[in-house]
Task: structure prediction
Amino acid sequence: MKRRAALLLAVVLCLEGAGVAGAAGAAGAVQAASREADAPEVRKAAVAPLRVPKLGIEGARVIPVGINERGQLAVGQSVSAVYTWNRGVRPGQPGSSVIAGHTWSRGEGVFDDLGNLRVGDRFFVGRASFVVNRVRRVRSLPP
Result:
């Protein structure tokens, strides 16, 4: 498989009480959060798969990862999986969670169509159901 360019998109899930606010945006939130040296270890088990029916994502594997030497989320090479910070809040728990995945110019990345999410669209992590309350922005990041 040849790739023209690898782009990274992140979905930031912010849970507010019983409601959920979703945003497509920068992975910079991960960098800021990663600098919290005293962050509690909250991840003990595998994260349930991600489903985004509107985008055709059915059961994308969610892989907990750390931070690389540049202070960025250490996203892996799989274009069909998504990644979450291993010291952050799990998707579906109160707090903010980041889910990052690839998009590829040839249409093979899990988040190729992330920019098509609209307010009111639903997505799921395991049995937990969420509604996109806002799409703040979608942008490409250098590989």
Observations:
- The first strand starts at residue 6 and ends at 16.
- The CA atoms of residues 101 and 122 lie 18 Å apart.
- Helices lie at 28-34.
